[in-house]
Amino acid sequence: MISKPFKEKDVKEKEAIIQYLGHSGWAIKTQNHILIFDCVGYNERSLGEVINLTEVNRKKVSVFVSHDHPDHYSPAIFDWRKSIREINYIVGWKLETGGYCLCLGPREKKSLNGLEIWTIKSTDEGVGFLVKVDGLVVFHGGDHAYWGGSIDSFSREIDYLAKVEDKIDIVFLALATGTGQRSESITRGIFYAIEKLRPKVMFPMHAGGREYLYKEFAQEAEKKSLKTKVCYCLNKGDKFIYQNGEIKKLN
Q: 205: buried, middle or exposed (CB in 10 Å: 19+, 13-18, 0-12)?
């Protein structure tokens, strides 16, 4: 399903429009910024499917890439510089790009163009990103998940985030392997993160095209009577609006 770009819509401080771009890809529009995470499959020509190019130059665009696995990173994102006047790239590994890319390792903190950014060490490759923007706090975990074995390397980074920020609005966490295989350990890790971080909203991701797994997990989470609202996307282009700590799907 072809995704639709953000429409012209005023977004106030502490509000966001969230759009699913497939797998671990997300676009988040806030009052002054557009954040894009782990976006694959959109070149300069198809960028208009993600964001409204007539509007984009009134926003600051920041593109985050957690690591260089091909289901999270495509070099095509750098062609977007031709269409977007103010764009920054933040990646979780050392990448030679001629100076227009901010490369961050684990547990770094940076301020960039109105954003505050913290990183964690992923249990796979690269980093996860905690971002403060326009009165919101967003965490995109990249490939950080409890894949099995000891939970320590997973829980240690989640505990670190809980000390960095105790009021998180939205988190995005891997639910399955890149080929869409769920496990008890991954699910256990998500519930651990929800308990520790206490976000208002959580989106599962990283299901390798098996979006029905997101709905299954949301139904499981609902039985636990969590304070965190677990949302799910079934199609690329699904959009939600976050206002006053509540979230609802947009048509």
A: buried
